[in-house]
Design a protein that fits this description.
The complex is a heterodimer. Chain A is an alpha/beta fold. Chain A is 37% helix and 26% strand. Chain A has ten helices and ten strands. The longest helix of chain A is centred in the C-terminal third of the chain and has 18 residues. Chain B is of the alpha/beta class. In chain B, the strands form two sheets. In chain B, strands 6-7-8-3-9-10 form a six-stranded mixed sheet, sandwiched between helices. The radius of gyration of chain B is 19 Å and the shape is globular. The mean pLDDT of chain B is 92. The chains are: A alpha/beta, B alpha/beta. Chains A and B meet through helix 8, helix 9 and helix 10 of A and helix 7, helix 8, helix 9 and helix 10 of B.
Chain lengths: 265, 264
């Protein structure tokens, strides 16, 4: 039984079709990749799944979370579900975090909102969360503001906030694109570990096939608003594929890196 | 090969905010004892992560900033930050392409005006119209691109415009400051191929600054790895990649995401 089931999702901005009949499903505990170039509709699909599309967008189709239809839900009902049952990690943690609020308060916010934690209990949980995502010196870092943290630390905070209420589904939209390569490796490992520990399902969005392959084993390919292919990573090396998929594989191959100690360097 | 660019013992530090009112201000060493040589026609990749000092080093090389000590020499002439006209000789030789073409192309200028600007500023005596048409064709854009504005182009096309502008004064060195990192994977590939092709056709030297060792090694025959302002490793790309000597270089290489074997 799939946990997140998107059927014939279509998003229009005025006359402009930006997501065109996208359907896919995400199973319990599964990690699914979504890949496509800028403008392919991948971020809008994610925003539709979590009910965060701008008001001027008109949406049709169906988004079911654990059997419950989310499209057409009231803002109030969606606000209850978001953060509690489905959560999101964004690309740029500096814009996703509130610059005027201390880290601890932002970490604890989902718990206070959804679980009604007292502010004292929330403070203790904030330190616990900071610890869980490997932030250094948690007692001190909960009193810091976002600008005082490095990019990698900010993304750890973003992940901690998203996972605070142990959601069923986590959507990560290019969570490492803004990070250095060594930090990226750490954040990807953290995401994999936490998602596994909590048994959450993960929808991982990126334009980078090598990054995707390190997190998921199955992926959907989006191009010009359409889902053009659903395939296993392992199947990408051979067989017939959609031209968009082949182009992504070609680009990734050209960028592929010689193995350490290899002779072809 | 004669030396094109020689950096000798460059140092640059910046004051940190004072901790106490009367305490001395500590300084952060953004570049420390950096020395290297770029031979004529050489292709140098400068690799480092955020805060490694790569942008500061680049600013010193381009005479946009002065070192605390040390020198930069280009064709045996000292490069010193100073008045714009005193640097025209350097700007004719060394041109830059920046990371984000949206930020580096003036939205109110047509592509023709954008490409004409360095020709005019550097008082280059040549038929500007013909030269503009020539560089546009060189980067794979249609002639009618000249009359359009930057926002009418895609990200990859905008980066082509930035490359055309850099090439207009016929420089001998093309410098790229993360020129590919704002681009999508497949567009990035085409721009990398374009730069490789232009470099060999025009016999350009390259200096590429990037956090992505995977991109740099494909275009550059020499690598320089920066960490916390220090050059921790330098040498031929192939050698550095095959047998990195510094632990940090190994860490950088290990962190690059790789495709599974069955796809490669």
């Amino acid at each position: 039984m799939s946990l997140l089931e998107i059927t014939d999702l279509t998003v229009l901005f005025g006359q402009k079709l930006v997501v065109d009949g996208v359907s896919f499903a995400l199973g319990q505990g599964e990690r699914l990749g979504m890949i496509g170039e800028s403008g392919s509709g991948k971020s809008l699909t994610a925003l539709a799944a979590i009910g965060l599309l701008p008001e001027e967008a008109s949406v049709t189709g169906s988004v079911k979370l654990d059997g419950h239809e989310l499209l057409g839900e009231s803002d109030r009902a969606l606000a209850k579900i978001r953060g509690e049952r489905i959560a999101m990690v964004f690309q740029e943690p500096l814009t996703a975090l509130n610059p005027l609020m201390r880290i601890g308060k932002q970490l604890a916010e989902p718990l206070r909102l959804h679980r009604g934690l007292s502010s004292k209990a929330a403070r203790a949980m904030a330190i616990e969360l900071a610890n869980r995502v490997g932030l250094p010196d948690p007692d001190r870092i909960v009193r810091a503001y976002p600008h005082q943290l490095s990019g990698g630390q900010r993304q750890r905070v973003g992940i901690a906030i998203a996972l605070a209420c142990e959601p069923l589904v986590l959507i990560a939209d290019e969570p490492t694109t803004a990070l250095d390569v060594t930090v990226q490796a750490e954040i990807l490992a953290l995401l994999r570990d936490l998602v596994d520990q909590q048994g959450a399902s993960l929808l991982f969005i990126t334009h980078d096939l090598a990054v995707l392959a390190s997190v998921v084993s199955r992926l959907v390919v989006l191009a010009e608003g359409k889902l053009v292919e659903e395939t296993d990573i392992a199947a990408l090396g051979h067989g017939e594929h959609d031209p968009h998929t082949s182009a992504l594989v070609r680009a990734a191959r050209a960028a592929a890196f010689p193995e350490l100690g290899g002779t072809d360097a | 090969m004669p030396d094109l660019l020689v950096a000798d013992n460059l140092n640059r530090s910046f004051p940190l905010p004072r901790r106490t009112l009367f305490g001395g201000a500590a300084r952060r060493h953004a570049v420390r004892d950096a020395s290297f040589v770029l031979p004529e026609g050489g292709r140098l990749g400068i690799v480092g992560e955020s805060g490694s000092g790569k942008s500061t080093l680049l600013r010193l090389l381009l005479a946009l900033d002065r070192p605390d000590s040390g020198t930069v020499r280009f064709r045996d002439r000292e490069v010193r930050a100073g008045k714009a006209h005193a640097l025209h000789w350097l700007r004719r030789e060394v041109q830059v392409v920046f990371q984000d073409p949206r930020g580096s192309l003036d939205p109110r200028m047509t592509v023709r005006e954008i490409i004409a600007e360095p020709l005019e500023c550097l008082a280059i005596k040549e038929n500007h119209r013909a030269r503009i048409a020539e560089v546009l064709a060189g980067v794979g854009l249609e002639p009618d691109a000249a009359t359009r504005y930057p926002h009418q182009f895609s990200g990859g096309q905008r980066q082509r415009i930035a490359i055309a502008r850099a090439l207009a004064p016929r420089p001998s060195v093309l410098v790229g400051d993360e020129p590919f990192s704002a681009l999508d994977a497949s567009v990035r590939e085409r721009i990398i191929e374009l730069v490789a092709d232009l470099a060999s056709r025009l016999n350009l030297s390259l200096i590429l600054v990037s956090h992505d060792i995977g991109v740099v090694h494909r275009l550059c025959d020499q690598l320089l790895v920066l960490r916390d302002g220090e050059i921790v490793e330098q040498g031929r790309s192939a050698t550095v990649l095959r047998a990195p000597t510094h632990p940090y270089t190994r860490e950088l290489l290990a962190a690059v995401p790789r495709l599974p074997d069955d796809i490669v």
